[in-house]
User: Fold this.
Amino acid sequence: MADPKSSFLNVYSILKSELLQDPAFEFSTDSREWVERMLDYNVPGGKLNRGLSVIDSYKLLKDGQELNDEEIFLASALGWCIEWLQAYFLVLDDIMDNSHTRRGQPCWFRLPKVGIIAANDGVVLRNHIPRILKNHFRGKPYYVDLLDLFNEVEFQTASGQMIDLITTLEGEKDLSKYTLSLHRRIVQYKTAYYSFYLPVACALLMVGENLDNHTDVRNILVEMGTYFQVQDDYLDCFGAPETIGKIGTDIEDFKCSWLVVKALELSNEEQKKVLYENYGKPDPANVAKVKALYNELNLQGAYAEYESSSYEKLVTSIEAHPSKAVQAVLKSFLAKIYKRQK
Assistant:
């Protein structure tokens, strides 16, 4: 058996060649080359955690039974649908945020000859998902549920992105809007559903489960996704750039980060003034003042406290779940993120 990542990447090649031969569209050489280059640049480049966790979750739900080739292929195909969804969000997200790099290379829209065509490429990526589902799942009893699931999660993610964007509108920067409940709503919708719930929901559908019977699983995974984002916010400021692979810019970007929300909660009037005057400004001197205030307020301590209480709460909720197989899935997710450094 090849290592999981390389067999997962083989499935990418199969899905890609099917999409490049899709009978619904008559490809020219140019258009086929464009789509292939666009896919290779945007889809398989990340850590692939979301996609691979569909296969891991499916194995655990099957109680460690040996999976046959078809099962591995189908679980991989669903994993790739999530990676396609992620690529679609990131291509458009980078345009909206006017970003420069993604995964250590220039954003797709920054490439010469691509530019704003990237907006349409995002739409193409989005439309590949139902093509893949139709090719491989149309005969399955859970086909309609899969379509519903992807549509619903996409809607939730786009709505989360909207709250995030309207909160950080240029010219309307207002720290008083930033609260823990706003932070939670942005994170829940923008990140938690597609990164945490979606892979497990795909695996549950494959084993014949009805998702309506698993709202508790969804709630635990959304909670985990929130915890993951708080870690991300923390690492953006306190993580070592050489470990996390990027230089954090949440302070400069006026992000509704857990740290700034917590700082507002803990600050006296004097300290709040420092935040209001320096947060969201690109000058390193302003950023340094915000970081100094974070240290003064001991946000590292506040984070350590948040981390341990979240972890305990998650473990308690997971252990209360009646199914040992579902517990195993949830515990494997938690193990991947607890105390991570990047």
Observations:
- The chain has a mean pLDDT of 93.
